[in-house]
Amino acid sequence: MADLLKNGESSTSISTPKEGLISLYLVNGVATVWDAQVAATLHCIHNISGLRAGTLPGVSQQNGFLGLPLTLMKEETAYLVEQGIAHLIPLPSFPTIPTADDISHHTAKRIERIRKLEQHARELEEERQKLSSQAFEKGGEKARAKREARARAKAEKEKEQKLREQDGLFGDDTTPTPIIQESTTDINTPVKLEDTVTTPAIPSGSIPKDSPGHFLTIPSHPPIPSSIQSIQPIKSIPHSLFPFPSTPRDQALLDVFTTLQKRGYRMGLGPRFGGEYLIYPGDYLRYHAHFTSQVIVRDEPIKPSELVAWGRLGTGTKKAGLLCCWTDNESNTKLREGQENEEEKEEQEGGVEFYSLEWANFG
Amino acid sequence: MNTPQRSSEAGPSRSKPSTPRKIIHANGSIPSTPAQNNDEGDNPRTDLSAINSTPGGAGGGDGEGEEDGDEERMDIKLIQSFADKIQHLPSTSETDGITSRSKIIIPRRGEKDFEPLSETVNLQEMMLQKSREALFNALVGVRGGNSKSIAHAIVTPSNPYPKMLIIHGHLFDTIGMSIRYTTSAKDQSKGKSKGYSQTELLPEEALYLLERGTLQIWMSKDLSDEEKENGWGEWSEEEYGVKGAIEMSVMDGFGTFIGRDGLSWERYQAYAYLKRLGYTVQRTRQFIPDHFLFDPSPFPTSSKESSVDSNELHPGMQPFHTWWLNIPRWITGLFGLIGRSVRNVIGRISAVGLFGDNRFKGTLLEGWNGNSYKSIFQHLRIIPQGHSQPLPIRASPPFNSLKSKYDILQHNPYLPFYHIWKPSAPFTKRGWDKGSEQGLKDYPPTYWAGVVESRTTPIPTIQQLDEIFQMVPDEPKGPVKKVGPQYIKPPRPPRPTNTNDNKKPNTSSSTDSYLHSILKSMGLGKKEDEKPPFVNIPAIRNGDRAFIVALNDSGNTGWVRFGRSGFAEFAPV
C-alpha cells in the first residue's frame, strides 16, 4: 500500500506502526483508531477492518459512509492485543491540561502560523483580483464586440423586414431609419451600464481584505501529545477497563475469531444477519461473505428448530450457516449428523470445530 | 491475497441448491458483467427482496433486502466518490478548495465477486488495490473550515459542559441550553447585573459539533478571578484563540464526553446518526443533567420546575401507584367471579327445577342471558383484558441503589432517552423549555426514542414496556398529516353541484329505509341493525401509544418501533 497523504496533520507522527506496537485508544471500553495510516496497516496487513464511526469531514450530512475514528469489535481488539500487534491506551475522562509554559509556547506558534497563513491568503487574493480584473477586461472586450455584432445583425434584419413591408405597403421611407438608430442605441446603452455596474463590483468583493480568514483545522489528535504519551498502555487483557474475555462465551467468541482469522478469513459484524459474524473469504471490499456463524459453547444443546432457522437464514441471505463448536477441554463433542440439512465437517483444530450448514432438499 | 483453499470448495457447494443460473454468476464474475444485475432476481425466493431493494439501493444500508445491508456498501465507486469529496487542507495552489465542493449524489453500487478465482486473480488484485486506495484516501479528510464560520467554546475541569464563547451557524438554533447564573456579591457591588446567562452544551452536542468540525473547544485549567480579569478564558483576536487555553482534539473529546452523564457509545451514535440527517434531537427531561436544570434565580418557576423534576426522577413509581389504585377493582372482580359461580350454581339448581333456560347446562355459558355475540364473549371472559388492567407486580429497583439519574437505565434500558423532531417540525429552544411539560405540549416531539445495545440487551419485558407506555403521549389519530411544500395542493375548483345526483341517493335511501321497515316489521331487520363495528386495521397495527428504539450493534444503528395495541379496544363483535 502506497503511503497515504499526510495532509498536514501533525498527528500522524504520534503512532508510527513500524516502531513496535500499534496504539489503540480506548474510549469507554471501545478501542478506536485515529489515523488513516494505522487503519490501512490494520486492514491490509493484519486483516482487521473495524467500523468507521465518525462524521466524514466535508460530507457531514449522511450516514452511508463515515470516517475516522475507526471502532473495533471486542474480538478484534482482543485479537490484536493477544497477538502482540497492538496495545490499548485508555483515554482519560478529562484530558490533562498542559503546563502554562507549554500552552504559551503552543499559542505563540499558532499565532505565527496563522499570521503567515493570512498574509499568504491576502497575497493570493490580491493576485487573484488582478487576474480576474484582467480577465474581465478581456472578456468584456470580447463580449462587447459580440453584443455589438448581434445588435448589428438584428438591425439589419429589421431593416430588411421594414424594406419588405415598405415594398408591400408602399409606406413612407422616413420611419425605418430612426427605428434602427433607436434600436442600436438601446442595445448599446445596457452594455455601458453593465460596465459601470460591474467595475466597482470587483473592489466590493475584496472587502474581507482586512481579515481574510483562514482554514481552521479542528485537530484530531492532541496538539501537545505529552499527556497521552505518559499513559501506561494496557498490554494484557482482560483488564478492568477492557473486561473481555471474561465469561466462557467471551472466550469462545475470541477463540472462534482467532481461529478463523488465522486461516485467512475476515470477520464482519453478524447480528444484522442473525449470527455472530459474517465471514468473508478475503477482503470485504471485493468479496461477499460466505458464512454466517453461530458460536456454540461447550455442549450447549442445539434445538432442531434452531438448525432449521440457521439453515434457512443462511440460504435466505445467500450464505451458508457455520456452526462453530467451542470446547475448552480436548474432548470435543461431536454433532450428530443426518438431519434433513446437509452438514459438512470442516476441520478439527484446537478447541473449535466448524460445520457448515445449508438448506437443501431432495429431487 | 488471503484466499484459503477452503473457500473455493465452499463456493460451488454453496451454489448447488436449485438455482442453475447462479453458476453463471459464480464463474462469470468478471466485474462489469451486465448479467450480474439479474442475480438477485433469478432465485424465485428472493424475488421479493429484489423488488424491495431496487428503490432503496441508493440509501446505503436500509437492511431491507438482506444482501443490501452493510456488507454491500463497500464498493469502489462509492468509496471513490466519497474520497473525492472529503475536505483537505487547502494547499497553497488552490484557495477555493473548500468552497467549491460539489453537491452530493450517492451513486449506485457496482458489483462484487463472489469469491477469489484463479483466472481473474490479477484483475481482482488490481480492483482490490484500487478499492483500498479509495477507502483510505477517503479517510484522510481534515475537520474544520473557514475561521469565520467556526464556533468556539471552553471547558475547564470544574465545568465539563462546554461554555459557548462564539456562536456561528444555524446548528445552534437547536443545540445548547442556556443556564442562568447569579453574579457573585463582589461583582454585584461593582455594578454588574444580578444574574447572567450563558449557553452550554450537553456532552453529545459538544462531541457532535466537535467531530463535525463546526466547533473548536478550548481547554483550560480552572481560572482564578485575577486571571479572568486579565481576559483569560475569553476569545482573543490577537491570539487567534482563547487566552490561556489549548485546543481540544476530537480524540480528547471522545474520551471526555463519552461515558459522561449517561452518554454511552450507543446513545452518542444514535444521536449523531439523527443529527447528520437533520433531525432535532433533545434529551428527555428525565435524563437532562441536573447542571442544566438547576436554576438559582429566585423566581417562582424554579420551585415548580424542581417539583416536576422530582416526580420524573422516579418513573419506577408509576406502576406502584397504579397497583394500589387497582386493589378495589380486583376485589370487585373477585366478587364478580364469586357471584357468577354462585349464579351458576343457582342456575344449575334452577335447571333441575322447571324454570330457566337449560340449553347451556354444564357449559361455560350457563347463566348467560344476553342476546348478542358480544354478550357471549363478555360472559366467557374470566381473565381481565386491556391495557388499563394492572400488570402483575415486578420488584422495582430500590431507590437507594440508584446513585445517579442514569442508573435507572440499567433496570429499564428502553426508557426514552431522546425526543426527536422531524426537520420540518417547528421547534425553538425557548418554546421547548428544556423539555418541560408545557414545552412538550407546545412542541410535541415526533418520536420518543430509547437506545439499547443489541448484543446483550434482552427484549423488553411487559413491565418495562408498560412503564414507557405510561410516559409517552397518545399517538395522533386520524389521517397522517404530511408537512412540506411537496404536499401542498392547489385549491380544487368547487365541483358543479348536480341536482340530479343529489336526488338519486335520496330516493334509493328512502327505498332502503322502506325495505328496512318492512323487514323490521317481519322481525328480520334486527340482525341488519347490529352490524359488526368497523375494525380499523391500520389503527390496530399502529397502536395507541408508541416509541422507537435505536438498536446499536457495535456501531451500526438500526431502528425499531414498539407500539401498544390491544384487541380489547377494537373488538370486532
Describe the protein.
Chain B: Residues 136-218 form the tRNA-splicing endonuclease subunit Sen54 N-terminal domain. The complex is a heterodimer of chains A (363) and B (573). Chain A has helices at 36-44, 74-82, 100-169, 176-205, 226-229, 248-262, 304-316, and strands at 22-27, 30-33, 51-54, 67-71, 86-90, 215-217, 266-269, 277-280, 291-297, 320-326, 342-349, 352-358. Chain A has 363 residues and is an alpha+beta fold. Chain A folds into 3 domains: 1-91 and 231-244, MutS, DNA mismatch repair protein, domain I (3-Layer(aba) Sandwich), CATH 3.40.1170; 100-209, no CATH class; 245-363, Trna Endonuclease, Chain: A, domain 1 (3-Layer(aba) Sandwich). In chain A, the strands form 2 sheets. In chain A, strands 7-8-9-10-12-11 form a 6-stranded mixed β-sheet. In chain A, helix 2 crosses helix 6 (248-262) and helix 3 packs antiparallel against helix 4 (176-205). Chain A starts with 21 loop residues before the first strand and ends in a 5-residue tail after the last strand. The model of chain A is unreliable at 1-18, 170-209 and 330-349 (pLDDT under 50). By secondary structure, chain B is α+β, with helices and mostly antiparallel strands. Chain B contains 22 helices and 14 strands. Chain B has helices at 5-14, 21-27, 47-56, 76-85, 121-137, 185-189, 203-212, 225-229, 250-257, 265-276, 290-293, 300-313, 317-325, 327-352, 373-380, 408-411, 429-432, 437-442, 462-471, 499-522, 525-529, 537-542, and strands at 144-146, 151-156, 159-166, 177-182, 195-200, 215-219, 235-236, 241-242, 246-247, 280-283, 418-421, 447-453, 545-553, 556-564. In chain B, a hairpin with a 2-residue loop joins strand 13 and strand 14. In chain B, helix 4 runs parallel beside helix 5. The radius of gyration of chain B is 33 Å and the shape is extended. Classes of the chains: A alpha+beta (363), B alpha+beta (573). At the A-B interface, helix 1, strand 3, strand 4, helix 3 and strand 6 of A face helix 1, helix 4, helix 5, strand 1 and helix 7 of B.
